[in-house]
Amino acid sequence: MGVVKEQKKKGIYGKVTSILDKETLLRCLLEEARTCSVEVFPGINVDNVTTGNDSVTAEGSGQTFSGKYLVAADGINSPIARIMGFNDNRAYYCQFRAITYHMKGVELPEPDAGYNITGFVKEGPAMLFVHKRATAEEYVFIVATIHPLIDLKATADYFMKDSFLRPLVQRCPDFENIFRQRQLLQPHR
Ligand SMILES: Cc1cc2nc3c(=O)[nH]c(=O)nc-3n(C[C@H](O)[C@H](O)[C@H](O)COP(=O)(O)OP(=O)(O)OC[C@H]3O[C@@H](n4cnc5c(N)ncnc54)[C@H](O)[C@@H]3O)c2cc1C
What we know:
Helix content: 25-40%
Number of strands: 8
Bound molecules: flavin-adenine dinucleotide
Strand content: 25-35%
Structural class: alpha+beta
């Protein structure tokens, strides 16, 4: 957060975040688990859980797994917690959605700085992030929102081509660079 040049003068204390590559993180975690003799069963969608006196059984995708404990590490909207009735009183507020593009050929004056903007399209607010990828000479361009009616792809196009950013683009050569030089690869959802 702040002015990049000023933050850099502070050295390590000027850094407010760090970026890691989730694909690499997950691959390393998987390798570590296998090194510790953990058996991994990919592609199983747990859709039923039953408990016994001293055991628990999870079923899904035609397979059954039994053990003493079941750890539900299936995300913030945990279907397993729902199956077990733990989320019965939970209120639903919103869903955070994002579309991510990988960009090549971007030359930013501050290549290791991240850019975060909150803006408005006609349906409501959306956020725009541009960050360098940790392990590749590419940038990510993310458009995210909690607004249910916002079309993420149309909003990404709008941000890139005709947005309210236009005046900012004129003032800020960084963004002009991004928009002129972007070479979009396939989007990831
Ligand atoms: C768009 C977006 C951007 C984000 N950006 C950042 C960021 O920049 N930095 C940051 O720190 N955090 C970020 N987060 C948050 C971060 O992704 C989460 O906090 C983190 O992934 C939670 O990890 P988890 O292991 O609890 O759950 P998850 O990563 O959600 O993993 C849950 C796993 O359980 C599996 N699963 C679900 N249901 C079942 C089932 N019934 N049976 C079997 N498996 C099931 C899913 O397939 C998934 O693999 C972001 C989140 C989103 C959505």
